[in-house]
Specification:
Largest sheet: 8 strands, mixed
CATH architecture of the largest domain: 3-Layer(bba) Sandwich
Number of strands: 19
CATH topology of the largest domain: FAD/NAD(P)-binding domain
Number of domains: 2
Bound molecules: flavin-adenine dinucleotide
CATH class of the largest domain: Alpha Beta
Helix content: 25-40%
CATH superfamily of the largest domain: FAD/NAD(P)-binding domain
Number of helices: 9
Length: 406
């Protein structure tokens, strides 16, 4: 253990958002101590699977657009600083039934911010990408500026540069408990000791309900809080949702699935039911259902049923491919289980703790948060240091959940 036990800011959780936060804080010359229970990037949270979609005409609401635009800039800066290739523009086509609220949301955001986009009919889509087979009742919107992020490389880049800027990063060291002092400051405990700081940022992903539950409790109480919904005086309506990623070897026309030829593609095959795919970057054609998973305990160990993908799940995914992208439905060559941390409205929680203002809650997930991580690092650093940010994050306030005021 490092002898350093006092920091300006402690960052708990060093995945997508925690690594970015540690990086921004360290770059601003702050003393940062970061903890992760594992060794990021790892495959037990929400940020693995080698590809994430980045899209700008945000269907979930125009409020996200300036933040994702800032993230785009910061991902490019991170590429320059780290010398790594982290983001590849492929374009993206979203397809669904006429009248789909998701497609209408894309159009609204594109219109509000003047973003390039191209509405397309099913026939036009089939003509431009003959491997895609939208049915005649479907329409689409193509966005040329969308692309793919490589999440493990993004996290590694943020962590490496954070450490080079002086952040003290502790891996394989879980935060067991945290305590906010009434007069300011926090103390956290890990199996290796106690650490203090002026501020604490909680970027613990799917473990947020458990870690919030460990606030002002002893380490032993954290163990007992497993699965508890009451979170240190703060009750958040979070749901941890199991998600499965699949990789298929294209059966035919393999070149059509390479990044130069294949945009991100999403398919709302029934109202509100969706799967999405990314080009073959070397691991196969990636495909997953979105928000159709069951509840999951993030502490499910490797090899448990929750972390194992069944043959039936692979068959269901293949059946969807066979209908809409039959040339992609070759050999099933891999799968991974990942987790969404969902709110009821599927918007993020990024705010100060309503009771302990020295604690920042960073839960930008709801199944679509990775693309924002570069900007979220900046925002969470602002909140930790100043209690506010120039970015408009009013949509993500914790007070919108009535139970959070208890
Ligand atoms: C299958 C799947 C596909 C997705 N696709 C997209 C996409 O295409 N585009 C997009 O933008 N988003 C996507 N998302 C969402 C996005 O990946 C997540 O929102 C984002 O990765 C969440 O990052 P995080 O930092 O909150 O969590 P994580 O990266 O999981 O980080 C949390 C970290 O906290 C650590 N931790 C937890 N408890 C403790 C503790 N007590 N002490 C110390 N450390 C602790 C964990 O070990 C972990 O490393 C997808 C998510 C999944 C699961």
């Amino acid at each position: 253990m490092s002898s350093n036990t006092k920091a300006d800011v402690i960052v708990a959780g060093l995945g997508a958002h925690g690594s970015a936060t540690a990086y921004h804080l360290a770059k601003r010359g702050k003393r940062v101590i970061g903890f992760d229970q594992f060794r990021p990037p790892h495959a037990r949270g929400s940020s693995h699977g080698r590809g994430r979609v980045i899209r700008t005409a945000y269907s979930e609401g125009p409020a996200y657009v300036p933040i994702v635009q800032r993230a785009m800039q910061l991902w490019r800066e991170l590429e320059r600083e780290s010398g790594e290739s982290l983001l590849r523009i492929t374009g993206g086509i979203s397809m669904g039934p006429e009248g789909s609220p998701g497609l209408a949301g894309i159009m609204r955001s594109a219109g509000a911010y003047g973003l390039p986009h191209e509405p397309m009919t099913a026939a036009e889509i089939r003509k431009r990408w003959p491997v895609f087979r939208p049915t005649d009742g479907m329409i689409g919107v193509f966005e040329p500026d969308n692309g793919a992020l490589f999440p493990e490389k993004c996290i590694s880049a943020h962590l490496k540069l954070a450490a080079e800027a002086g952040a003290d990063l502790h891996v394989d060291e879980p935060l067991l408990s945290w305590k906010a002092s009434p007069g300011g400051g926090v103390e956290v405990r890990t199996p290796k000791g106690a650490y203090t700081a002026d501020r604490l940022v909680l970027t613990v992903g799917a473990w947020l309900p458990k870690v919030l539950g460990a606030g002002d409790l002893s380490g032993e109480a954290l163990q007992q809080a497993q699965g508890a919904q009451s979170q240190g005086g703060l009750t958040l309506p979070l749901r941890i949702e199991r998600q499965v990623l699949h990789w298929f070897e294209p059966a035919r026309n393999a070149t059509a699935f390479l990044p130069a030829n294949c945009p991100n593609n999403s398919w709302e095959f029934e109202p509100g039911r969706l799967f999405y795919c990314q080009a073959n970057f070397g691991d196969g054609f990636k495909v997953a259902f979105h928000h159709m998973g069951v509840d999951m305990d993030p502490d499910s160990p490797p090899g448990s049923a929750a972390r194992t993908v069944s043959p039936q799940e692979a068959d269901e995914m293949r059946a969807a491919l066979q209908k809409y992208i039959p040339d992609a439905a070759g050999r099933h060559i891999g799968a991974a289980v990942c987790m969404y941390t969902d709110t009821p409205d599927f918007h993020f929680i990024v705010d100060l703790h309503p009771v302990h203002k020295q604690v920042v809650i960073g839960s930008p997930c709801a199944g679509h948060g990775f693309k924002f991580a570069a900007a979220m690092g900046e925002i969470l650093a602002d909140l930790a240091l100043d209690g506010r940010t120039r970015h408009d994050i009013s949509l993500f306030n914790v007070g919108r959940f009535p139970s959070s005021k208890t």
